[in-house]
């Protein structure tokens, strides 16, 4: 089962699924492998498609909220090229560790998602404009 977000639309959900697999891979090798308990909460729905400890579930929920509120909406650039720094320092640091570890490993496990992301990193960051609608606003329209 794919860890789809039930709130994110289109490319933002693809982005979420990518980051979900990356957090899962990191958690598997760093937390669950060392005896951390798997989070067995049923909500949100993506939880049941993933093996994550409580800490990583929280990090991924945070990522989902940031994607939901991203002012670029579905035109969102790759996070590491984005001029807006929307993560708080602590989750930012956690996420950086996840990316560093899981990034190269994604090429083998989820090559399509990995290549999509690498392609996105090569694109110019779009200028924010009024046609861009944050997901949170869009899903309430
Ligand atoms: Zn974890």
Automatic annotation (TrEMBL):
The record's listing under InterPro entries reads: Uncharacterised_YgbA
Per the UniProt record, one Pfam family is: YgbA_NO
Could you name the domain of life of the organism this protein comes from? Answer: Bacteria
Name of the protein in its database record: Nitrous oxide-stimulated promoter family protein
The organism named in the record is Vibrio ulleungensis
């Amino acid at each position: 089962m794919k860890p789809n977000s039930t709130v994110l639309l289109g490319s933002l959900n693809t982005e979420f699924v990518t980051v979900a697999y990356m957090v899962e891979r990191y958690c598997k090798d760093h937390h669950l492998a060392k005896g951390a308990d798997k989070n067995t909460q049923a909500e949100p729905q993506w939880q049941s498609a993933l093996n994550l400890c409580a800490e990583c579930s929280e990090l991924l929920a945070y990522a989902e909220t940031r994607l939901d509120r991203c002012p670029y909406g579905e035109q969102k650039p790759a996070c590491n090229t984005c001029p807006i720094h929307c993560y708080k320092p602590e989750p930012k640091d956690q996420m950086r560790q996840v990316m560093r570890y899981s990034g190269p490993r994604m090429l083998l496990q989820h090559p399509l998602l990995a290549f999509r992301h690498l392609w996105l990193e090569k694109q110019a960051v779009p200028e924010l404009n009024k046609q861009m609608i944050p997901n949170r606003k869009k899903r309430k329209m």
